[in-house]
Write a structure and sequence with these properties.
The complex is a heterodimer of chains A (194) and B (430). Chain A is α+β, with helices and mostly antiparallel strands and 194 residues long. Chain A contains four helices and ten strands, in the order ααββββββββββαα. Helix content of chain B is 21%, strand content 35%. The chains are: A alpha+beta (194), B alpha+beta (430). At the A-B interface, helix 2, strand 2, strand 5, strand 8 and helix 4 of A face helix 1, helix 2 and helix 6 of B.
Chain lengths: 194, 430
Amino acid sequence: MTFFDRHARGRGGLVLVALLLVAASAGPVAAHGGSTIDRDPCVQKTGAWSVHFTVYEPQFNPGDEYCADVPKAGPLIVVFDLVDQELRKTAFELDIVHTIGGTRESVHHVASKVYPTGVINAEVTIDSPGRYAAILTPEGRSAVVFPLRVEMATPFWVWILPLLLAAPLLYYWSQRRTPPSATPDARRNLALVK
Amino acid sequence: MALHGPTAVDRPFRQVDLTRRRAPSAWVALAALLWSAPAPLVWAHGERSQEPFLRMRSILFYDCSWSTDRLKVNDELLLSGRFRVFDDWPVDVMGRPDTVYVNTGVPGPVFVRKESFLNGVNMANSTSLEIGGDYEFRVRLRARAPGTYHVHPLINVYNGGPIQGPGKWVTVEAAGGPFTNPEETLTGQKIDLEWFGLSTVVRWHAVWAVVALAWLVWWARRPMFIPRYILLQRGAEDELVTATDRKLGAGLIVLTLAIVLIGNYWANSRYPITIPLQSSRIRVKPLPRPAQGVDVELVKATYEVPGRTVYLDLKVTNHSDNSVRISEFTTANVRFLNAAVAKDEPEYPRDLIAPSGLVVDGDPAIGPGETRVVHVSATDPIWETERLALLLYDPDSRFGGLLMFRDGEGKRYLSTVGGPILPTFKLKAL
């Protein structure tokens, strides 16, 4: 009798638990992937037009880009992409602020100006972990706010821990039910197909 | 699912073991169903998810046009343009373009392709492409279903997958009548392909469905998998098939062969003139290339990540008789125009064009016979929004593209450029 035979009953539950774990770990998508710009989580609208936001930490990890959770405090580069051509005729004011309670403390400010190339970028140094916001204010319109959590993301091991804890429990659960005792009963089985 | 292994049958099975429903499986199925239910409809084709090096270094589309972006059901749309088969085609990944097919990228059968041509040759068949060659395509489509669709030219490459051209949103409105697809056959018969032969297809499917269903019911009326498996394991398989089963099987073989023969005879007498599906390849020669052009050699390429700018140092040699200036750089269907030379094209999809995204440093004119290193920058958020910047993280971080030059008389010269590209985070213009 193989391992799978003995544990056949437990596998349905195992699959269910695995599915639930996967489902539970699916948080908001922070990367960009290959989705269309309309479904990109790093895009916000100002009127009918889209602004795409990216944060880089080249000194920490040049291969990654972020838009909501930044892994480390320190020097970073913020980039706003003015996706629609119409936005490239509009003046924008840029503010990076540290939000503490209900107050805002300015970290970086760029006065209102037009960006004909459609790219707004700035080098900013974030001294301490916490909640920040990148605020882009188009002239004559309401501001577009991108909240930033710096060094506040849930560590990866937090997602792994439940799985590690659940594994021995699942094993115990699958061992609990033992197969029926082995007594041949061919007549009964033959009757099943007749 | 329950009984694996040769010794599994050594223990007795109770009826409840064999017939009990697997509740966990049902729950898993329900959970999967609920999970997938809110998935939104997807209208685009995922063109941005294809690896950038494939989009930039395979088929380089240019001069693409759509005859209209709004039409009614039964109206026709002409999709036309050209493409260059990139010189540094990624042979290791895609193989050679020895078998390709001119196609269109639309979401389902919302258009009917009436005809397609490559360099004037009918493209009912596949063809092979010459690396470095230019080709002109033309596809005539007939609108079938109302809606708004992203319509791309598309080249299917055997072993390489589909390479999509630029996509434009096209709206098809209801016409007040049903879709028709009129055609005249070689014998002069006028038919509507939308419905032609449909009743025959349905009838024959029904015949075979009845035969298949009868066969299934014959066996399914008895206990099936696990009890039968048990008998098989115990060497009592003779119990499974009765004499009546054998007679029925033999009868069904005879019936099936008879139906096939009768069907073949009926089809041949009903449709005596037919043309088989065309499956061969046609060789299409590339468009002729002007004798004297402009050669471009890449010296250095850098992508400034925060600036969304590709900087190119190019060694340009002008073999023509006139001074030329760089007018456009196009790659992966994205066009960067030098506003000093090329005019914006409002009809081109706005998300794929940077009307003043290309800047040439210094004296932009390159004289006849002159060789010079030219510094060019292509800036636009398109690099990010079209996911082309992901090239830097590809296993093959080499880009490719098409440079266009124009002389004073408006004559155009095309030249490909490509090579390795390096990222930088140093901002040149804050």
